[in-house]
Design a protein that fits this description.
Elements (H helix, E strand, L loop, with lengths): L4 E2 L2 H21 L5 E5 L5 H17 L2 E5 L7 H13 L5 E4 L9 H7 L11 H8 L8 H12 L8 E5 L6 H10 L3 E5 L6 H5 L4 E4 L17 E4 L3 E3 L2 H7 L4 H10 L2 E3 L12 E2 L7 H19 L2
Parallel strand pairs: 1-11, 2-3, 2-4, 5-6, 5-7, 7-8, 8-11
Antiparallel strand pairs: 9-10
Helix pairs in contact: 1-11, 2-11, 3-4, 6-7, 6-11
Bound molecules: nicotinamide-adenine-dinucleotide.
């Protein structure tokens, strides 16, 4: 069997970011300075890392960004006031609320308070509806990034069996809808699916968005399939590292240095069966921020169209 193609998310993200930077220049020439506001509540370390990375990428591409950092004790009402003021600001094109929010905050209410035209995460019901009905709108960054990757690497999905494992609002559902809109024959699987391997073995394109390390193994994959691994999980047990990454001194060394290594939802051994696959890290994850930047510029342009 020929060597599978590695779908290099870092390289594709660079292509997207270079194009976004050019679009930013074009907008600025028209007197439009695209701006993103990020609300980061409390001190969740992982959220802080993500937000810092988003703000840094904005700066690299010439997008103005503003970070609002209310304390953990902030109320839903106070956050609503914050969102409403951002909705009204002419200099803000995109509003992002970093999730998860503290348990006492009404996340759904807040996401619905964001103006759909500034909803760069694509989570507002209006944008969900636009995606469902095939209208232009802002689409969730991770699944939109997967579609960009497929398009840019000439992987045509038309008519093919695409199987998505996972039905979350953030990844699984919008991923399925995007694939359907691109004329794939889509099956959505989840934790209640009967005989999952029988379904996944039928997939020409298999997307795993589950959140379980190495869950999809070689017996679940059709030879020659395209494997898209959305999962980001951490292995903290040396035995698991040895099992999933045998004869891999680099990962072992990383594990010894950091005490954990990242793995997706697909067992790396299954990649050898594929025609193309996304590695973890360096696959789908790399695209999410690039698509957020792309959505911000899209929102800036659409609002003034
Ligand atoms: P989630 O927990 O909201 O959803 C998981 C889905 O997997 C559910 O729909 C559930 O039905 C399904 N599932 C769980 N166990 C299953 C099983 N045994 N068999 C079949 N289906 C099963 O998670 P999410 O937010 O959709 O994220 C999924 C993964 O993707 C996580 O690892 C997350 O870290 C990662 N993620 C990555 C990015 C990125 O930028 N690459 C973005 C978002 C999420």
């Amino acid at each position: 069997m020929p060597e599978p193609t590695v779908l290099d998310g870092i390289a594709i993200a660079s292509e997207i970011k270079a194009e976004v930077a050019l679009e930013v220049q074009g907008l600025k020439a028209r007197g439009v300075n695209p701006g993103l506001a990020v609300i980061l509540v409390g001190n969740v370390a992982a959220s802080e890392i993500y937000v810092r990375s988003k703000v840094k990428t904005c700066a690299e591409l010439g997008i103005f960004s503003e970070m609002l950092t209310p304390p953990e004790t902030v109320t839903t009402e106070e956050l609503l006031v914050m969102v409403q003021s951002l909705n009204a600001r002419e200099d803000i094109d995109g509003i992002l609320i970093q999730l998860p929010l503290p348990a006492h905050v009404n996340t759904k209410l807040l996401l619905e308070a964001i103006s759909p035209d500034k909803d760069v995460d694509g989570f507002h019901p209006v944008n969900v509806g636009r995606l469902q009905s095939g209208q232009p709108g802002l689409q969730p960054c991770t699944p939109a990034g997967v579609m960009e990757m497929l398009r840019r690497r000439n992987i045509d999905v038309t008519g093919k069996n695409a199987v998505v494992i996972g039905r979350s609002d953030i990844v699984g559902k919008p991923m399925s809808m995007l694939l359907l809109n691109a004329s794939a024959t889509v099956t959505i699987c989840h934790s209640r699916t009967f005989d999952l391997p029988a379904v996944t073995r039928n997939a020409d394109i298999l997307v795993a968005a589950i959140g379980r390390p190495g869950f999809v193994n070689s017996t679940m994959v059709k030879p020659g399939a395209v494997l898209i691994d959305v999962g980001i999980n951490r292995l903290t047990d040396a035995n698991d590292v040895a099992r999933f990454f045998p004869n891999n001194p680099d990962r072992e060394a990383l594990f010894l240095r950091r005490g954990s290594v990242v793995i997706g939802d697909i067992d790396p051994a299954a990649f050898a069966l594929s025609s193309a696959y996304t590695p973890v890290p360096g696959g789908v994850g790399a695209l999410t921020i690039a698509m957020l930047m792309s959505n911000t510029v899209k929102a800036a342009a659409l609002r003034r169209a």
